[in-house]
Amino acid sequence: MTGTGLRGAPRSVVAVAAAAVLLLALPVLALVQRAPWSGLSSLLTRREVVDALGVSLVVSLLAAGIVLVLGTPLAWVLARVDLPLRRLVRALVLLPMVLPPVVGGTALLFALGRRGLFGQWLDRWFDLTLPFTTAGAVVAATFVALPFYVVTVEGALRTSGEDLEQVASTLGAGPVAVLRRITLPRLLPAIGAGLALAWARALGEFGATITFAGNLPGRTRTLPLATFQALESDPEAAIALSLVLLAVSLAVLIPTRDRWLPTR
Amino acid sequence: MSSPRSGPPSGHTGTMALSVDGHVVVGDLRLEASLELTPGELVAVVGPNGAGKSTLLRLVAGLVRLNAGTLTLGGHTVDDGSDRGLVPPHLRRVGWVPQDRLLFDHLTVAANVGFSPRTTDERVTALLDALDLTALANRHPGECSGGQAQRVAVARALAAEPDVLLLDEPSTALDAGSRQRIHALLDDRDPGGRRRPAILLVTHDPAEATGLADRVVELSDGRIAGGLRP
Which of A27, A234, B33, B179 is spaced 20 to 30 Å from B140 by Cα? Predict the structure, then answer.
């Protein structure tokens, strides 16, 4: 889209737009301005920060892996299979995107808690307890992150269309070969973007984690939980942790900008 | 909708490269297809837009299926309107060149032409050469002109060693040189050391139809006139 110059745009609209940009930029600016730059390295090497970073990396990377394994077939089914209840299934998949995370955590507790709908069987048959464990934090992160990946990949599958796959099949490629040689390679950029978004969402997860997995140092206390904790006792550490999360968010946003931010 | 099933269109489907007698319903379109091609024969299908020409090609390729009737390729039934009798596209020896080409843009020109698991390196090299594509072998389809892309699509379909080649408006928007090369290739030349496949050519262009085809059939109002061998 080509725009008119700033001169040609209605002033009132530009003013409101500028206010919106300010609303988004101010908190980031304040964070950067208040950052204890000189003591940053010692803050970031503190035991509780390193622990939280470790928990966050383990939880978010495992969640991203599960999202990849579960989400790719789900996106394919939603895009390509004429499911009888497709609208309902899609609504269910998208639900965690709009659901308050604390509600998601509560729901997970009643589903997978020791006395939950399925949790009681996990406990009885496999001696597996999810709440207040690192595995529980992974489940909570997966729950909130999965829809971001599925939506991205499903959208790509829809727009890439089936016609190329049809050509490939007339050339003698069976369904698995078509998936391997046409569908997946063409889907890689969307898989990458979806995975980055899902990982960022998992990394930033707070409400579902604290509700379902608690806030146990070294086990379920992720960076966002540590940030919240530090805000009361050690605001400088909270700022340092926030900067780490901000840097990671920017690192995810920049490579996926072509998909989410039209550059022209 | 249903129509009475009729028997094979002639008594010698075993010698036919392609034989179809049946009907297919796609959306608002109902196509009554009765058509035979002998091996190596080039039949042009002409008719107005929306008459079902592309659907006829998709039917032969296995991308749409008969509601009732029989479709045979090389004497083998590949579609009899039932789930059990349906042979999927990848098991039919058919080469489809769709109107909008549909090249694989994540692959090079050479990888497009060599896509079929049925082809060989020698055949790919011969086809690239015959269609004057050797210099483009390592480029991607996005870097090709319309005429070049069309030649890639034809080469890719021929590389799969089809018994029946399906061409959907192959000369639309082509420069004279590309048109000539494709026509020369269809005109009994044999770049891969193989007999020419039967060819079903859909075209708007009456001159192309009469100039190239052994037989011209007309498709209008969802019916094919003159499809069967006399």
Answer: B179
